[in-house]
Write a structure and sequence with these properties.
By secondary structure, the protein is an alpha+beta fold. It has helices at residues 2-16, 20-39, 41-48, 54-67, 72-83, 90-105, 120-134, 165-178; strands spanning 107-114, 137-144, 152-156, 159-162. Helices cover 63% and strands 14% of the residues. The chain has a 4-stranded mixed sheet, sandwiched between helices. Helix 1 crosses helix 6, helix 2 packs antiparallel against helix 6 (90-105) and helix 4 packs antiparallel against helix 5 (72-83). It starts with a helix and ends with a helix.
Length: 180
Amino acid sequence: MESVIAKRYAKALLGLVEANTALEAVAQDLSGLAEAYSSNEDFQLFIKEPKFQLAAKATSMGQITKELGFGELVQKFSRFLISKHRFELIELIAVAFDRLALERLGKGRAQVTASVELSETQLKALAKQLSDYTQKDIALEVTVDPSILGGAITKIGSLVLDGSVKNQLNQIRETISRGT
């Protein structure tokens, strides 16, 4: 339920961004605000504390976002979330906004888990293949996990492409156990 609400707020914010060139900046600011909130326990306690009045929270939020260097739109949006008692959803909203902004820009993001560190040439080739496959400009987020033994696992949204050796060995094991 919270993710549905977060997506609605993300869509509303997306509608307020006039130029596509500002989308990435707003997404970055929103992500930074979500990170600041999730990593600071005092910040979380302040937002959740019912004894502080909304006006005080909104004023403080304005000061916090200004000091952190966030743009005017994110400053206003954060105060709006405070007034609607929805600031706790900032992390979900940031993720939803990022996804919607990338979609509007015709871009995508792929999380790649590889067994070893990939070279720059391999990264460019993989990004090109994924761009050709999705018809979108793909940005890669690469993590290394030696437990997959070899190959890579790629996630683009809800699509998972598992080309890991570990997965292939599991498929062979299942085929042998079924006797086919």
